[in-house]
Amino acid sequence: xxxxxxxxxxxxxxxxxxxxxxxxxxxxxxxxxxxxxxxxxxxxxxxxxxxxxxxxxxxxxxxxxxxxxxxxxxxxxxxxxxxxxxxxxxxxxxxxxxxxxxxxxxxxxxxxxxxxxxxxxxxxxxx
Length: 127
Description:
This protein is of the alpha+beta class.
């Protein structure tokens, strides 16, 4: 079995009317799949199973609905290479496993703002 992290994207939409921009949520799900098994299909099933369909959800005090938009990426988990008792991908994740990653292009100033949790315009190199 290979372990993966799936990045599932959801949009939150008003039931009546529109906003200029959509509220987008990205949830990360852990899953395992046999080699040759479709990890994407499993990721979609997990994401859809986590949708809540009730009338309690609101956005800006207005009724809304969360919609599954798709899987942005699936990354196989890499276990720590210094552990001789684990395979890189086949064993379950442990403390120190790399679960996901991003490759971004940022200036020095953008990097400082990014690390402070401030808004920056980025260019993402990986998908």
